[in-house]
Amino acid sequence: MRILITNDDGINAPGLKVLEDIAAEVAGPGGEVWVVAPAFEKSGVAHCINYAHPTMIVQMDERRFAAEGAPADCVLAGVHEVMGLARPDLILSGVNKGNNSAENTVYSGTIGAAMEGALQGVKSIALSQFYGPANLSLDNPFEAAAQHGAALIQKLLDHGSWGGETYQTFYNINFPPVAGADVKGHRVVAQGLRPSGGFGVESHLPPNGRKYLWIKGNPQNVDSGENTDATVNLEGWISVTPMRCDLTAHDLLAELEASLG
User: Is residue 229 a known part of a binding site?
Assistant: First the structure.
């Protein structure tokens, strides 16, 4: 199996090394793992692409490349340039430092890479590690992902649905903020929404007298609704959420058409 991996935390991020080990286990002895990751951190860029300017790419080692672009750019580079004529069988994005559950999903460059992979017709999975008091002090905060990632990916490859009438399905996996031994298992759940919603801003006035705004996140250890990702993560479960790039509110189409006449 040929696997392409990327992330949004950058080529030197510890979570990428965790994902390399996971990918190597999934690929098997005769498989290949290719890395195309952002040269610098690109968190929060969602499905952004460098449409208006070129992306520089540098080979750092065998099958290892850094790109001056967003995670979706890295997927495009890997599929259409780096890996040559032999496309990847699987794209993995992560392992993100922090959760991409609930509303974080919308902002996440980790998710953006998986979205692009699905749009390219390749099976794609985003993986993120929830952080909390129970795993922050571990020697490896990614322990839950490291211990359970490969087996869960293999289950999805063997039993998951990858089709779609139009947009192809991809998967969002979030590992709970606990030690590997304390993971209860996995749950297939919907994307949730924390009551606090998305991000906000905090203003600062530096010595130059000009106002600057810092993007400010909201508390993460908050339930996101029954049978949803962040809620089950905080209960010690791995969340698995099938997703598609279609943003249409299908449940409203008939009602809206009728109301608009």
Answer: no
Looking at residue 12, the DSSP 8-state letter turns out to be T
| 137 assigned ligand-binding residue | no
Domain encompassing residue 71: 2-193+222-260
Check the annotation: does 8 bind a ligand.
yes
Domain count for the chain: 1
Report if residue 200 sits inside a domain. Answer: no
Domain-embedded: residue 214: no
Q: Cα 181 vs. chain centroid, distance in angstroms?
A: 23
Computed on alpha carbons and rounded to an integer, the radius of gyration of the chain in Å comes to: 19
pLDDT, tens digit (0-9, with 9 covering 90-100), for 74-122: 999 999 999 998 999 999 999 999 999 999 999 999 999 999 999 999 9
The reply, when asked if residue 9 is annotated as ligand binding, is yes
Residue 152 within any structural domain of the chain: yes
| CATH number for the domain that contains residue 116 | 3.40.1210.10
Tens-digit pLDDT profile for residues 130-182: 999 999 999 999 999 999 999 999 999 999 999 888 999 999 999 999 999 99
What is the DSSP secondary-structure string of 119-181? Answer: HTT-EEEEEEE---HHHHTSS-TTHHHHHHHHHHHHHHHHH-----SSSPPEEEEEE-SS-GG
Asked, for residue 14, whether it belongs to a domain, the answer is: yes
| pTM for the predicted model, two decimal places | 0.97
